[in-house]
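hey m, so remember when u said the tokens were messed up on ur end? i reran from scratch. heres the input so u can diff it against urs
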Amino acid sequence: MSIFKPSYRFVNILEITPENLKNAGVKAALVDADNTLALHGSQEPFPGVPEWIRKTVGSGIPVIIISNNSKERIKPFASRLGVPYIEKSAKPLPNGFLRACKKFGIKPREAAVIGDQIFTDVVGGNLIGAKVFLTAPLGPDTDKFIKAKRRLEKYVR
């Protein structure tokens, strides 16, 4: 399998059900924030996201936000959603993902990495052997660096 290929593709996170996760052998969800749960940099989750988190956690699958953003960006957002977080995770490097797995006492292969970017979420999830759920970005890319990565993603999608 290519390091750039997700295990599963969904239009958005709301389409991913606890049953999808359980059927994939997932015991915890490691979820990206920007353009997966909220617009880039926003403290306001997309409609349906709080309910998705409650349903997922209620089914026995804990959720953690894993982000390359700062604590100042992620802490209030995660608090609002009632989930733990890992900031400055340096995705796609494995350390942040592995810290999240350790927090939940699971093996990396029991984790779902859910996000919208191939070069951070997909590559990072594949590096640790997780199940990778790629979603389409739910908002426009406003950052120049992300726009450049999106152009490169077209070659590996």
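this time it looks ok to me. DSSP finds six helices and six strands in the chain. if urs says something different then somethings off w ur setup not the seq
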